[in-house]
Amino acid sequence: MSKLQKITSANRAQMMLEAPLTQIIPRLAIPTIISMLITAVYSMADTYFVSQISTEASAAVGVVFSAMSIFQAVAFMIGMGSGTNLSRALGRGDSEATKTYVACGFFITLILGTLILILGRLNIHALVRFLGATDEIEPDAIAYATYIFYAAPFMMCSFAMNNLLRFQGMAMYSMVGISTGGILNILLDPVFIFGFNLGTAGAAIATALSQTVSFLILLFMCNTRENTISISISSFRPTPRVVGSILYNGVPSLGRQGIASVATILINRMAATISSDPMIISATIASISIVNRFVMFINSAVIGFGQGFQPVCGFCYGAGRYDRVREAYFFCVKVATAILLVLAVIAMFFSSSIIRFFRADDPIVVDIGTFTLRLQLLTLPLWGAYVMSNMCTQSIGYGFTSTLVSSARQGIFLIPTVLILPRLFGLFGLQISQPVSDVLAFVFAICIMRRVMQDLKQKENRAS
Question: What is the maximal distance between C-alpha atoms in the chain?
């Protein structure tokens, strides 16, 4: 503990500005990678245990997952927006601003989570139909969504506090809260689903309880650990300038995850147009849900690595060390691309086994899912440059540019491909939509980052 305190208090500036990037970024990234992986694992655990019930139950989780992604998107918008401002304020040495952004990040998220809980419960039947549930999927989707909405405020505040701790360089505390909830979720799933015979509702109850535990742990960490900036209602001053700055820097996260949710909803709805057979429709939604959860598991390691990069990026930019921002970006792109390339090759050989692990009893799910997964693995290595470009532009306050980058992969390019390609090529068009979008988003991000790097170089020259 003393080592962590030392790093995050008196030596924070020296660590961020002087320590070798090859050491400090992995050091900050390891806790976030663990948190992201455990979060992805318990997400896959939900899919695995529910898939043992039926294909319709598996599809129901996939349908409701898009709503959960919206929770996460809103929470990350506030948490990342507050966190990027927080890290730059730390770089400037503005302690009053850091307290304001921490308080606003927490309480604004709590208010929004409570509103989502109320609106979601009042409109749950219409909502699951809008998300893509068919007559066969709807009962399981409602059973799952009911308890997920009850947990929305706690879930969202956990995501926000996770980001606030990370941007203070306190990723280890964040890891403890997120990981504990994730492990608890994995343990509770079979108990509630099969032990208490609650089916999909049991999976949702397990998730709701686990997220509440994470919330309590993270709140304890934020308010009791030495060197953390406490969440105080007295510092909650949501002035138009503060809220505007949070939104400006947080909208890229909303773009990245919120538009991804919209794309998922469209995919679920387009699945209903490729066949008149309810079994094919349910199998398609279930297989795409399984593929998305597995790919998210792989990508979570890269996102976790990028989150170790963000505090360094924001701090160095706030301190005027533009050369270090550029160096950190290129280092992270190289590492992330190498990791993704290795993982893509390995997963390609085991694609069929991966899908069978979730739903071996349904050959239609296995066939559709295996081919879909292999197509997505082909473009997986491109995500390294894309993810780091998004995180870099967001961390240094390039809000509009970051929004464009974050919206590209699952918004600007994916939504049109989902609307067009299935109409032309049926199921294959639906399966190829994401890989096509990945290639276009990669090219777009590289073009954007060339301009950003040139801008940072000019700032560096003017400062010297």
Answer: 67
Please give the Cα distance from 80 to 394 (Å, whole number): 9
**CA 365 to chain CA mean position, Å:** 25
**Cβ within 8 Å of residue 438, ≥6 positions away:** 376, 379, 380, 382, 383, 386, 409
Residue 6 lies in a domain: no
- pLDDT digit string (tens) for the chain, length 464 residues: 334 344 444 566 778 888 899 999 998 888 888 888 887 877 788 888 988 888 999 889 888 988 888 888 899 899 989 998 998 888 788 889 999 999 999 999 999 999 999 999 999 999 999 998 889 999 999 999 999 999 999 999 999 999 999 888 787 888 899 889 989 999 999 999 999 999 999 999 999 999 999 999 999 999 998 788 999 999 999 999 999 999 988 877 776 677 778 888 899 889 888 887 888 899 999 999 899 889 988 988 898 899 889 889 988 998 899 999 999 999 999 999 999 999 999 999 999 999 999 988 899 999 999 999 999 999 999 999 999 998 899 888 787 888 788 889 888 899 999 999 999 999 999 999 999 999 999 999 999 999 999 999 998 888 76
How far is 149 from 113, CA to CA, in rounded Å? 9
> Can you read off the two tokens belonging to residue 38?
């455990």
The region, left, alpha or beta by phi > 0 then psi within -120 to 50, assigned to residue 321 is beta
d(CA 8, CA 27): 12
Q: What residue spans of 225-350 are helical by DSSP H?
A: 240-253, 259-271, 278-318, 322-349
In this prediction the pTM is 0.77
Rounded Cα gap, residues 31 and 47, in angstroms = 24
- Minimal CA–CA distance to 35: which of 301, 310, 383? 301
Q: Round to whole Å and give the CA distance between 248 and 395.
A: 11
Contact present, 126 and 161 (Cβ < 8 Å): no
Strand (E) or helix (H) holding 33: helix 21-51
Decide if 11 is inside a domain. Answer: no
Judge whether 146 lies within some domain: yes
Q: Is 20 helix (H, G, I), strand (E, B) or coil?
A: coil
Number of domains forming the structure of the chain = 1
In a domain, 1, yes or no: no
* Domain interval for residue 43: 20-463
Q: At what angle do helices 322-349 and 427-463 cross, to 10 degrees?
A: 160
